[in-house]
Specification:
Layout lengths: L9 H10 L1 H11 L6 E5 L7 H8 L4 E6 L2 H14 L5 E5 L12 E7 L8 H10 L1 E19 L4 H15 L5 H11 L3 E12 L2 H7 L2 H10 L5 H17 L4 E11 L2
Parallel strand pairs: 1-2, 1-4, 2-3, 4-5
Antiparallel strand pairs: 5-7, 6-7
Helix pairs in contact: 6-9, 9-10
The protein binds S-adenosylmethionine.
The site of S-adenosylmethionine has 20 residues, from helix 1 and strand 2.
Length: 260
């Protein structure tokens, strides 16, 4: 399939999952699932979360994952088979803004780093609320790329690059800060926000996670930075990496709320 600037591959998602492990663990807790429960992960990618959720709900439970990318769904199915949980985990190709499930079908519904790719995230949240049963929990997790901060002597270039990633490469790059209001406006009760700082000291990992190659091309295409400025910024980070002093920071926001 054709991938837009928002596309990330399974290798990227595996690296991001290791960094966001604590956020994932908390998001499972906030779903308040017990054995035998049914749970949906929207924008499930290669099954990063559907497999751990299958362990939580156990053999009598049911886990569904939905993603618009057929390659992600195929990889998620492959991983579920390899983990021996494919009888209770189902992955489907579909769109977050038109979920192919009945009202109240799930005890819990989550999405992680999905809404930052959507131009109309509230439509997906409304769908997530619709398919959650009354009393069930909805958990939204997203990065807020407005809080991205990376050490460099090239401070002004770093700020411009932060703008490029948040505003030009992503449809909704400030999603994290918007989750709280969105959950309340969607009618959820007991809405609770949490924030987790994520830091990276490995230059190569940061390059991957901040999608510097894509962002650099976009910066030049949009006329926000010259190719030389992109190179200078990257060089400054590479030098810090070689000196063992590279440091980048962003924030993961997690919001949970109960369907009334
Ligand atoms: C950054 S990945 C996150 C994957 C996974 N939630 C995780 O935490 O590893 C975003 C995922 O959302 C999917 N996606 C983007 N827009 C979507 C949409 N409108 N409906 C369903 N899935 C979508 C992408 O294909 C991708 O797999």
């Amino acid at each position: 399939m054709t991938h837009g600037t928002g596309y990330v591959d399974p290798a990227y998602l595996d690296a991001a999952a290791r960094l966001a492990a604590e956020g994932k663990r908390r998001s499972y807790e906030r779903l308040r699932l017990s054995a035998g429960a049914s749970v949906l992960d929207v924008g499930c990618g290669p099954g990063t979360d559907t497999l751990p959720l299958a362990e939580i709900v156990g053999p009598s439970g049911h886990v569904a994952g939905i993603d618009r990318d057929p390659e992600m769904v195929a990889e998620a199915d492959r991983r579920a088979r390899a983990a021996g949980v494919d009888r209770r985990v189902e992955h489907r190709v579909g769109d977050a803004t038109a979920l192919p499930f009945a009202d109240g079908a799930f005890d819990g519904v989550r999405s992680e780093r999905l809404l930052l790719h959507l131009a109309e995230p509230e439509r997906a949240v409304a769908e997530m609320v619709r398919v959650t049963r009354p009393g069930g929990w909805v958990v939204l997790v997203d990065t807020d790329w407005g809080t991205r901060s990376v050490d460099t002597p090239e401070t002004e270039l770093e700020r411009r690059m932060a703008h490029v990633l948040a505003e030009l490469c992503l449809a909704n790059g400030y999603s994290g800060r918007r989750l709280y209001g969105m959950a309340k406006r969607a009618g959820l009760a007991d809405v609770t926000p949490e924030a987790l700082p994520l830091y990276v000291t490995d230059y190569a990992l940061w390059r991957l996670l901040s999608r510097l190659d894509v962002a650099g091309e976009e910066a030049v295409r949009a006329g926000v930075m010259t190719a030389d400025e992109v190179r200078r910024l990257d060089e400054s980070w590479r030098a810090l990496g070689e000196a063992g002093t590279f440091f980048a920071l962003t924030t993961l926001v997690l919001v949970s709320g109960r369907r009334e």
